[in-house]
Amino acid sequence: MVEFAGFEMPISYAGLKEEHHAVRTSVGMFDVSHMGEVFVEGERALDFVQWISSNDASKLVDGGIQYSCMPNGNGGIVDDLLVYRLAETRFMLVVNASNLDKDLAWMKDQNKFGVTLTNKSDEFALIALQGPRASEILAPLADGPSPAELKYYTFREGTVAGKPAMISATGYTGAGGFELYVPAADAPAIWEALKGEGVPPCGLGARDTLRLEAGFCLYGNDIDDTTSPISAGLGWITKFTKDFVDSERLAAEKAAGPQNRLRGLRMEERGIPRAGYDVTNSSGEVIGRLTSGTQSPTLGIGIGLAYIASNQAKIGDRVFVRIRNKDVAATVTKPGFLPA
Q1: Check: CATH 3.40.30.10 for 35-117+228-258?
Q2: 204-231 mean pLDDT
Q3: Is the pTM of this model over 0.85?
């Protein structure tokens, strides 16, 4: 157990590799109740969400979800988040626990639309049921239509193990599955019901190796207040069909091309890349830096994410990771390391 954002968080239960393989090949569950839930309500709720977030929330219908980020007015990112459309005038924003206070302060500062912002983070627990068997496991516990009928990035209200739950077809593992938003008091009963179906609990260690294999950014490592969504490869959630915080600045950066790009690295030789390690070219010049890295349990090789100078970040290029003063060869890839 470790302290994180005011919570005691499990690193592992049975062991990182065992938990990782369980999720990738079968099923596992994570207690991620530390995530923050902020509700936006009012006639201009959509206008507010459109202004603070980079993606185009006007495309959402009730029951729809969007991945987005909040630009900070200086070219960086306040936080990445999920936007849930509950109704035309009501949204739920799911943010990172370590950023909750900062996010709330930013939202209040940007609230020129007269919306009501309510932090309900303490009222909700969040259980992530992940893996290819998640639908099979959840179906007998959930009411209504089979969870398998939920399209990726949609949600519905219902019950799980007889308790009220928002069933969301989302996750942070690249293995498929669901996230269950439930009243905090009901979380232990739902957790035990899932354990009774043979679902192993998993910790933050496996969650990190799973998300890295999938190429998902982690706030504080791969994105932060100094990284732009364009540089971070998040242009796909940065829509210039509307006006939003930093839209002109980011449009100019996209047109000119960012100085650095977030890329994936696959080690060609033995060696584990770690956050903070330098990336070099064949001449030994430092051209980038690792922001995340690990030994991939699925692939059996070292993988990582790194910001690399754009003129030396071509997909397929060979670069080197400086590990204990030795430059170890790696191949530049797009983030995401699993077979399609």
Answers
A1: no
A2: 98
A3: yes
